[in-house]
Structures are given as structure tokens and as C-alpha cells.
Here is the input.
Amino acid sequence: MNFVFDNDRPIYIQLVEQLEIYIISGKIKSGGKLPSVRELALKTKVNPNTMQKALVELEDLKLIYTERTNGKYVTKDQKLLDKFKDKYAKDKTQKYIDDMKELGFEKSEIVEFLKEESI
Amino acid sequence: MLGKCLKYDLKYVYKLLIVFYLIDIVFACLTRIFFGFDNSSILKILGYIASSTTISFMFSIIINNLIRVWARFVKNIYGDESYLTHTLPINKRTIYTSKFLSSSITMLTSVLVILLCVVIAYYSKENLEVVKNTLQFFATTMNSTTIKVVLTAFFVIFLEFTTVLQAGFTGLLLGHRANNYKMAKSIFYGFLNYIFVVAISVLVIYIIGLFNPNIMALFSSNTLTVDIVRQALILGICLYIVLISIYYYINIKIFRMGVNVD
Amino acid sequence: MKLLECKHVYKSFDKKEVLKDINLKIPKGKIIGLLGKNGMGKTTLIKLINDLLTPTSGEILINGKEIGIDSKKIISYLPERTYLDKSMTIKQTFKFFSEFYDDFDIEKAKRLIEDLDLEIDTKISKMSKGMQEKLQLILVMSRNAELYILDEPLGGVDPATRDYILDTILNNFNEKASVLISTHLIGDIERILDEVIFIDKGKIILSSDADKLREKEKGSIDEIFRRMFKC
Here is the structure.
């Protein structure tokens, strides 16, 4: 779990973002158990309090849930995970298009680029 | 906790002193060996060399004892190591008592080693006669008293240098309350308080002399009787013990007011 | 009852006032940065908390009690300098710490020394300065203390050592203890801080949750600090 952080923005927000990606990309399966707060903090090299804050956020977003005696789990709600994945995909695509447009490319040229690039 | 502190304090001082102890004992033995050969003049010369070395090392032992104990005090309480000393979970009283006890214990062993060297190098019936004769006032009394006087003299030396050690501690404690020129002020305060204590002691002895003719005789008379010496010794030893106790009490008070570590 | 509380603490040396009206509260379970330029009072404050100096006025309370044996039992202090007897070996320092501190975990210390590939019989005088500093860090972190105080732990270390130090601090974290880190190298350490305290010219200028400050001032703690104290 090699997370990289920027000191310019609140760490816990960056943690939420990176954990979201980690979860929706399936690195932990839907319904799968998360490591403990302490383990996660050690793996990502952050303050356990910050990790705790991030996990609370993720729980508010319903991406994870807590089973009181057993720990934290990734949501079983595949639809929610897909929704997040879609949103990320759309955001990334929009950013790509905006960047290309800034370079001066037209929409058709952008499509050509995508077709050529082996995905 | 006191025992643990004492262990480390003693270790530090003895690390150096043991060397001096051993050298002095070796030369004391050599002195006796060389002087044992009456016929050879070369060996007699070696004997004198060994003898003077033995005696100079006796002074070295005392001086190094003083310096090493004071150095330990400064290093442990005001130097870099003090960042550890003052953050250990021990009372300030315990820290100081350990310094006090280690200084007394090492001074005691130093004086005993010196006494041992004197005995090894110089003890003989003839020498004892010489001592007896110079202490003329004991000419009429028994043999054993001479030895007692010598032992008492060594005990007084021990008490004197223990007092000097405490005076040094006071100087260091007062000197290091300042922010600048800590060592200079320490030495100054050390001398000052020692001289002050000597002056007060003389005053006290004089006042007691007003009530005790024997003691007064110390100031006026030229001849010494057994009684005078005996009373003087008793008074002196009591005075030393009182002084050392006062020093202990005052030094702990100053120490507990807090330190000023750079 | 806070773990550490300073109430109206002043400290002067002769006529010079080095700390002015210091008020702060440190709770359990946090990593807190005491941030400021060199010579602004950080080390003086830390020395006061550790009984190396006495306040000119004001109170310092640890778990509600005055500084004394009880506070020293639960504080683990890493000063900027080497405070060990250099004639000792690493093994002897472990023995020393176990003798005086009930909460010293000698097995943990041995493990940490092994990780650094150091021989336990090495004399401190024979170790490089960097290694001596790491040894002191290990001694401090091997105690199960309630308050760890680290004075400039990152001063003059290479990036690999810096990471080692930050990892050791994080690995050691537990909710019953707090870590107070004093430094002027803000950028290196700000990522792990819960709260920050800015100290300048002997006064506390700011005290805040780290992420909240980033959100509010839109920048890194380092930048915010520079903005506030433009020379």
C-alpha cells in the first residue's frame, strides 16, 4: 500500500481518496475484511488517528461498515461500488478530455488517439 | 534507587582511583623490599626513590580523589549526562545523597590505602619509637596509645577531606545557579565557603575555650598535655561531624531548589 | 485531566524573558508538533517539563500533578544531545535503563538494535554520531511511557534515517500515550502530526488540529508557518 501524500491538503481527505480507489479497484473484494486501523496506519505510514478519521468518512460514504466485534468490512453493495467506479471513470475521462483540449486537440482527434493506443 | 545511583557513582570514581591505589601499594612494597637490604648502597638509593614515589602517590590519591569526585558531580548533574540524571525517576535527595556517600566512601578507602601503604613501607619497632619520641607528651604512657594517636590522626585527615569535598559541592551548586562563568564562580564560592567554615570553626573552638581551660590552652600554651590533645581531638571530630551534617543539609536544600542546566 | 498542562509559565534567564505566558494542554493519544524557529523557546519549554530548569513562574502539571518522581516515571525524553556515558556498551545502557525504569522493554530494545545490525557489546564511544542518536531513540521508544518528548529528532539525519525515525514513532503509537515532537524541520514531520503548536519569541502563536489548519489556510503546515513568520 504505497500511498503518496501531499502536505498541502488535509491528509485524511487524501487518505479517503486513495482508500476509495483501493477499494473500488477490487484490491479488497466486496464484503472482504479490512486490516485493523493500526495495521492500515502502519502500512500507509500515517498517524492512526488520521486513519481513524478517514475510515469514519468511508463509513459515512457507506463504502465500508463496522461489525462491532469483528472489525471493518468493505460493503457488499456491488451497485454502490459500481457507482463509485463509474464516477471515478467519468471524472478521469473528463479530465483527460479537458487536458487534451487544452493542448488543442479536437474531439475526433482525441477519439483517434484512443483507438490507436493499445488499451 | 540510592543503591543503584551509588553503584554508578562509585564505579566512575574508582575506575581512576584503583590505578593510583595499586601503584602506591606496589611502591610501598618496593620501599620495604629495597630498604630491607642493609648492605647495598644502590638498593638504598632505589629505596629512597621508591619511598618518595610512595609518598607522592599518597598525595596524588587524595588530590585525584577530590578532583574525580567533583568532576563526577559536575558531569552528572550539569553536563550532557545531566539530561539523563534529572529525568530519571529518583528524588533529588537520592541523587545528592548518592554523591555525598560516594565521596565519603571513596575518601575513606583512600585514607585506608594510604595508611596501608605507610604500614607496608615504614612500619617497624624502631620507626614506632621515633614517632613516640616526637610525640613527647606520650613518653610516659603506654605503647598502644601511639598507634591510637596515629589512627586518630588518619581519621581526622579523612574527616577533613570529606569536609573539603562537601565545601566543593556547595561551591559547585552555588556557582551553577548562574548562567555565565559557572566554573569560575563555583571555584570562587567553593574557596569562599571553605574559608568561612574554617573561620567559624576557629571562632566556635575559641568560644568553647572560654568554658574549657584545656581547649583555651590550644591558643595560649606552648606545651601539650595528654588531656589537651585528647579534648582537642574529641572537639575536632565532633566539629567535623557537625560541619559535614550541616553541609549535607544545606547542599540538599540548594539542590532541591532546582538546577539550571545548559 | 490532561496529560500535560502548562499554566501561565514564564521563564527568564537573568533579565532576558525566554518564555512568556505559556498555556497549553496536551491530551492522551495524540502526536503533537511543537514548531518554531531555532532559539524561540522550544527547547527551554521542554527542559522545564523535564525538570532540567525551574519556571520563573507558573505551573506545569503532568496528569494533574506537579513535576516529580511520578511525572518522570511516565515521561520518556529524547534530547538533542547524547546523554549517555560514552564508556558504556549498548548492553550496559539497556541494563541501566531497566534498573531505573520499570516500564523499559528490554526485549523490544534488543530487537530494534538487531534491526540496525548493531552489536550489543559495542561501546558508545566507538559508534558514529548517527548510530548514537539511533541508540538513544531506541532507548526512549523502548519504554512504555505515557508522554514521549522528542527534541529535534530529525536534526542532521539522512533521509533513510529520517524515515526510520518516523516509522519508529508511528509503530510505537498507542492511544494511552502522546508524543510531543519539537522541531524546526516542519515539512519532514507534518504528515504524522495530529495537532500543531507554533511558538515564536517565547510565545505560543497558534494551536490547532493539523488537517483543520490545512483546510482553513489552504496550504501545508510548512507554508502556513513561513507565511506567518516571514523574515
